[in-house]
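Inverse folding, one chain.
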């Protein structure tokens, strides 16, 4: 019929032995198998071992996951900042390039414009001299017409004349060659224009050469407010 066997674990070795059933009741613990004639073991009253993960191991795993998450978020923010800086630098480069192209186009004729200013000066000298002689009235008309045509051409290319008697003196626009007193004119205004000033668009390419009315030294300065 059926015989009873017991599997004893001795250290790392498992010993199979035939023992009487009564020994199990005396405190010998093991794994008992009932063997049928076919040799198929049947477990009887065996103890089971369940492996459970310790709380420390779970906490360590959670800490590792949290650290990896924080590292990933930090890398994301770093890449985002680099991307934003790259966009800003690209936009700045486009703005600078656009400004440079516009500046190059607008001021490409600056050297040529400066050379043309001497022609304008000579026409002014001719007008001043011719006006002193009444017999040169036709000459004055011709020179004046030529000058106006030249100034119109200047204006078409962004070149404009400035510097008139009575203008307030501005060191950014005017070059004061001398000062003189004139009680009939306002101090620190332009009393004489020796050479007109010119701008190419918004850039001064020649300051106006002027004489400035100086303040009357006998007049006390205005009281401080």
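Residues assigned per position:
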């Amino acid at each position: 019929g059926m015989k009873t066997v017991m599997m004893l674990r001795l250290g790392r070795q498992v010993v199979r032995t035939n023992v009487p059933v009564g020994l199990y009741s005396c405190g010998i613990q093991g794994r008992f198998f009932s063997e049928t004639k076919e040799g198929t073991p049947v477990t009887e009253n065996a103890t089971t071992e369940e492996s459970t993960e310790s709380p420390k191991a779970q906490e360590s795993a959670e800490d590792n996951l949290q650290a990896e998450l924080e590292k990933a978020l930090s890398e994301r923010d770093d890449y985002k900042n680099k991307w934003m800086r790259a966009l800003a630098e690209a936009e700045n480069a486009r703005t600078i390039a656009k400004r440079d192209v516009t500046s190059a186009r607008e001021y490409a004729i600056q050297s040529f414009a400066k050379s043309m200013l001497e022609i304008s000066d000579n026409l002014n000298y001719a007008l001043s001299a011719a006006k002193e002689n009444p017999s040169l009235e036709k000459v004055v008309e011709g020179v004046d017409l030529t000058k106006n045509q030249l100034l119109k051409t200047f204006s078409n290319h962004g070149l404009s004349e400035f510097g008139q008697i009575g203008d307030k003196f501005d060191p950014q626009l005017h070059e004061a060659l001398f000062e003189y007193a004139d009680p009939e004119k306002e101090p620190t205004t332009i009393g004489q224009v020796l050479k007109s000033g010119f701008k190419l668009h918004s850039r001064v390419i020649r300051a106006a050469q002027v004489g400035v009315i100086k303040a009357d030294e006998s007049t006390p300065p205005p009281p401080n407010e």
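The CA atoms of residues 31 and 47 lie 7 Å apart. The chain has three helices and ten strands.
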